[in-house]
Every structure is written in structure tokens, then in C-alpha cells.
Amino acid sequence: xxxxxxxxxxxxxxVAGETVGRIDAGLLALVAVQPGDGDAQTQRLLxxxxxxxxxxxxxxxxxxxxxxxxxxxxxxxxxxxxxDTHQGMRPGxxxxxxxxxxxxWFTRLVELAKxxxxxxxxxxxxxxxMVSLVNDGxxxxxxxxx
Length: 146
What we know:
This protein is 24% helix and 38% strand. The chain is of the alpha/beta class. Helix 1 (39-51) packs across helix 3.
């Protein structure tokens, strides 16, 4: 699994003009599932999302995690992160999980996240989404769970 995470002061997702997920300060995670991903990768990615230390401590250093700050987590499925972009001028998607597998493991990630953290908000799997965010820093990281 792959996640592109951004520390945000606010973020929200709209589908057809309706807000389906919204957080204040916290973490926006764009998530892609790859072929062969399963429970181990899902659990590992969640550990990293909740424990990755990218929030400021009292000295202003990135030393606190989402769990420590209590910030929001906005999970958005984005299969294009798994694209093969090594050749040509058009991405290939054989390196992304099938829609059924992607939905299965993304849904499992959401379930696990909601059982361990609050607030957790989500986009809508497979929908055309409008994602808005205010990146705090800017702070952006690419995480992989293998």
C-alpha cells in the first residue's frame, strides 16, 4: 500500500457538490492499494499513519504523531498513486490493485482506523472527488507499507 500524506490545517472532500468528509488540523492521506496487498500491509500502513511523527513538539520540531495530537485523519482512495510512470507519456495501471481488491483493503483500512483513532473521515471510493486542503508547512511525505 502507498500513502501520500500531507499535514493540513484543514481538508475536505466533495462528491457532486456534497461534502462527504472534512477535518480540521490533522493528516490527509491519499491511499493506493497495489496487487498483493493484504492485511499485513493494511495494518502496517495504519501504524505509520497514526504514528508518523510530523507534528511540532514544544520546541517546534517534528516529533509528535497524529495519535499524540488527536488531529483528524482524512482517508481518500487514489489508485493513480500506484501508476507505472517509468515509460512513455501515459501512465499504466497494471501496478494498481483491481477496483474490487482496492475497495476491499481501503475499506479495511478505514475500519481499522476508526477503531483506533477519532476523528476519521473518508472520501467516496471510486467517485470523482474534489479534494481541498490547506497544507501546513508545506509538509508532505510518501509512505509505503510492504
